C-alpha cells in the first residue's frame, strides 16, 4: 500500500491543472478549491475564470464579446447596460472574472425586463395558424415601435409586460436559451435579434 500522502497532481504544472479544471463544470471547479491550497489557488485563478466566462458566454445575447475585454472594462460594460449597479461594484471591492461569471449567471436567470432590454431589433412571428414570414421590427428608446406592416407606434412597459397600442393582450416576457428575450402573447411572438 502506498503511504505517500503527496498530491498525485504534484507532478503536473499549475497551468496543466488549470487546463484540466477548464473542462469541469463550474460547480466542480469550486469544489476543487477545497482539496488543497494549491488547488484553491489554481481554481481561483483569473486565467481559468476568464476561460470559463468565454465558454459560458459563447453565443449568449449581450455577453459573447464581453470576454474579450479586460476585467475592468467588463465592469464598465455591465454598469452601462444596467446589469450591475455601480454601488454594488464598490462593495465587491475587487473585480474578477469569477465575479463576472456569477453576475452573468444571475443576469441570465432574471425574468423581469428593463426598457434597455427592449430597445433594439426584434423578429416578429405571427401566430401558429397563419403562414407568414418573420417580420423585422424595432423598439426605439423614445418608446416608438416600428414594423413595416404598421409603421411607427408607441409602446410602454406595464409591470413585466410590454403593451403595444391595439394589441390586446400585452406581450409577456420570457428568457430564451441564449439569454435573449422573447415577448409573446397567444397571437404572436417577438424574438430579440
From TrEMBL:
Pfam families: F-box-like. Keywords: Ubl conjugation pathway. InterPro entries: F-box-like_dom_sf (IPR036047), F-box_dom (IPR001810), F-box_SCF_Substrate_Recog (IPR052121). Pathway: Protein modification; protein ubiquitination. GO terms for cellular component: cytoplasm. Residues 6-52 form the F-box domain. It comes from the Eukaryota. This is F-box domain-containing protein. It comes from Basidiobolus meristosporus CBS 931.73.
Amino acid at each position: 500500500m502506498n503511504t505517500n500522502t503527496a498530491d498525485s497532481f504534484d507532478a503536473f504544472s499549475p497551468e496543466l491543472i488549470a487546463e484540466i479544471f477548464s473542462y469541469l463544470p463550474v460547480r466542480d471547479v469550486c469544489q476543487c478549491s477545497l482539496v488543497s491550497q494549491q488547488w484553491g489557488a489554481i481554481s481561483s485563478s483569473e486565467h481559468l475564470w476568464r476561460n470559463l466566462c468565454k465558454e459560458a458566454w459563447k453565443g449568449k445575447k449581450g455577453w459573447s464579446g464581453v470576454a474579450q475585454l479586460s476585467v475592468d472594462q467588463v465592469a464598465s460594460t455591465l454598469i452601462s447596460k444596467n446589469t450591475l449597479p455601480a454601488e454594488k461594484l464598490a462593495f465587491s471591492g475587487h473585480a474578477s472574472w469569477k465575479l463576472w461569471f456569477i453576475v452573468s449567471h444571475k443576469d441570465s436567470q432574471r425574468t423581469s425586463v428593463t426598457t434597455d432590454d427592449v430597445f433594439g431589433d426584434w423578429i416578429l412571428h405571427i401566430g401558429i395558424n397563419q403562414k407568414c414570414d418573420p417580420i423585422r421590427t424595432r423598439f426605439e428608446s423614445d418608446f416608438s415601435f416600428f414594423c413595416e406592416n404598421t409603421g411607427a407606434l408607441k409602446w410602454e412597459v406595464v409591470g413585466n409586460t410590454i403593451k403595444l397600442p391595439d394589441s390586446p393582450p400585452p406581450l409577456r416576457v420570457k428568457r430564451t436559451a441564449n439569454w435573449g428575450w422573447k415577448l409573446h402573447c397567444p397571437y404572436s411572438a417577438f424574438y430579440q435579434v
